[in-house]
Amino acid sequence: MADRAALLKRKALLERKVALEQQISTQSEVTPTTPQSNQVDTSGSDRLLAGAGLAVAGAGALGARKIAQPFLKRGVDTRAIQQIGKPFGIPTDVPPSFVPERLGELQTQAKQAIKPAIADFDETVLKTSVKDLTQTIETGQGEWLKKPTIKYGKTLDALSSEMANRGIQLNGDELDIDVVSKTIDDARARGIPEEKLKSLVKLRKDIKKDISPIRDAKGKVIRRNINLTKAKGRVSGYINSNQGNPTANMMRDRWGLFLEKSAPEDIQIKLAELNKSYEPFAQARRTLTKIKDPRTGKYDTVKLNRYLSNYVKQAEDTGTKDILRMLSEGEGIAEPVPGAKSGVAKLESTKSNRDALKIKMNKQVDRISTARSKAKLLSAKIARSNQRIKVRGNVTKGVVKAGLLFGGAKFLSGLAVAPQILQAANFAKDPQKWLAEQQMPDKDIKTFKSRDKFEKWRKDNPGADSFLMDKSGQMVPFNPA
Length: 481
Fold this sequence. Notes:
Layout: H1 2-27, E1 35-36, H2 46-50, H3 52-57, H4 64-75, H5 78-85, H6 99-165, E2 169-171, H7 172-189, H8 198-210, E3 212-215, E4 221-227, H9 228-241, H10 246-262, H11 265-289, H12 301-313, H13 318-329, H14 340-406, H15 411-414, H16 419-429, H17 431-439, H18 451-460, E5 467-469, E6 475-477
Antiparallel strand pairs: 1-5, 2-4, 3-4, 5-6
Helix pairs in contact: 4-14, 5-6, 5-14, 6-9, 6-10, 6-11, 6-12, 6-14, 7-8, 7-10, 8-9, 9-10, 10-11, 11-13, 12-14, 13-14, 14-16, 16-17
């Protein structure tokens, strides 16, 4: 009899197991029908809820992992991470976990490619543009420097002669210090050999001899004057006999400003206008003179090439830009250098293209970096999602064994204190809410058992989001229309 009772008990347990498996297979398709507002409405799912405890109890055999895993995977679509790498040539069959690493490799390669690409551009395009403009400047700069200088010098001579005819006396000490001595100091600072400064040093001595002291009634020297005609003869004589020399140009620039300061008002106005039109040219000439060899007076081709190349490579340089514009278009008293217009335009185009190349390559690095960050974030989410699937699958397997052994769903209440059992119990209590929480872990999920309660809640909370759970258990935005 005992053996027969044991056999009957085993038979009953087997029949219960079969019934549980059938229960699970018929309920593995979750079909909640009512919407959820940032939340799920479970109206119409009483049948599913009634058998939920048994479904979870048998989930290890057929169902809980099967039910849970699709929803957890849909929360982070593995195809999304593969699509991130696609625009950068990463095949879509590359495992998602490898995409961030491949993007990191591409980012490094993109960074490393910038320097050689710019170097290649400089060696081909930039080098040609600079060489062409350098030849134009070296060929045409002689006449370009000569014409405005002669024009300026003639106008100065005419205005200074008008001043001399009025018997104007100049301050001899200021002429010596501000014009002659400063020119000598600047020439020495620029490395001009001392032998080329002999005539300038002699000029200074001659001017000092021409200075006459002016005394007051007590015999005290109150001013040291020099006759304008004598001063003009000596200064203009030196400039005219040293045309084209850096020292003559420096002397002329200072002589014009000194005359403007010393002239009567009507002539001062004319000199101010003349100096204003001459200054941009003088500034350009002074800059270009620094590129010349102080011993030969000729351009140092290497320095000129470097000067133009640096303009292209560096940020906006308004000083050089103004000089190039003057060379190509002319300004004030200066006319354009023959042939410079096309050369300057080519150099400006080269500068724009070089800048555009750098910007384009750096943007590519930034695009890859952004894609890599997104891929790393998705990869981490996939890893967490898979871990949850693994843990909950193992939990529900244990619940099944216990449920089948001790009477199905009733066993859940007896082990509710166990953390792992609580996971399964939560599913048993409200499957729709549990599935919604897996897809929206950062949301506070609220469910409704009737449509009326749901609509009332939406009315009281007009700013909240509403969602509907479709037949596959996926959360979709609720559209009342």
